[in-house]
Amino acid sequence: MVAARAGAKQACKVVVDVSPTEAAVGTRLCALFADAARKAIADKGSFTVAVPGGSVLKMLGGLKEQKGIDWSKVHLYYVNHKVLPHSDPASTHKKALAGFVQAVGLPEANVAAPLEPAPGQDLSAAASAAASDYESRLRAAAASLGLPLAQSGAPRLDWMLLGMGADGHVGSLYPNKPTLEERTAWVLPFQKSADAASITLSLPVMAAGREVVICLTGAKKAPAVRLAVEGGAQPGELPGAMVAPAPDATLTWLLDEAAAAELGGKR
Length: 267
Ligand SMILES: O=C1O[C@H](COP(=O)(O)O)[C@@H](O)[C@H](O)[C@H]1O
What we know:
Blueprint: E1 2-5, E2 13-19, H1 22-44, E3 47-51, H2 54-59, E4 74-78, E5 80-82, H3 92-104, H4 123-145, E6 159-162, E7 187-193, E8 196-201, H5 203-207, E9 211-216, H6 222-230, E10 250-256
Parallel strand pairs: 2-10, 3-4, 3-6, 6-9, 9-10
Antiparallel strand pairs: 1-2, 5-8, 7-8
């Protein structure tokens, strides 16, 4: 079921797209991704997309079934990434390569892999270096691909695909953290604990997507979905609700029935 909503505070068009099961959400996600890629490539010769980790990345395995995409014209970025060697089983880059990139024939040169930590490097220093490197690469790509910039100055990727945690976190932007206040940097380091750090796109870059798709499933996330879609979160409480795309953008909530269960009204 697909419904456009006017209720949320975003100025952009908001679509709530509900499928019966998690598997059906995965199928729908890959079909929408493929449609957007084919259209962008036909219209302007390239498709730029940022993808998250977690359950949404796994769903992208279904892209293997999609036909008619010129993968040499697709440019892939990560919404967030743990500061780890690419050989680490928890590396999102490693999972993306194995999950769909290699199978569909997306050239690895078109995948912006984050800088790996140097052996023995201090984690916080490695996170800062990786964030700064990723931002430089994104700036270079924005220039070479001619990406338009949003009013915030952030690059407008064609598709900004986000997951959201039950606590409302998107990428590595967590509730009530100073990273939510960032307005200038495109990529930020975030140290979650003494032994876990990541880099993440900033809120302005997430919001700058020409299409922003927030995909999530499961009953545990239903309260966060209700708050984000219908409003009412306290400032800083729910990062997913703080992604406010431009008026000419579309924000699509791609949900299963369980995640949509607390939404009232028409959906
Ligand atoms: O920590 C993270 O969580 C979100 C949501 O993950 P999910 O497995 O519950 O879908 C994810 O989008 C993000 O990339 C990841 O770092």
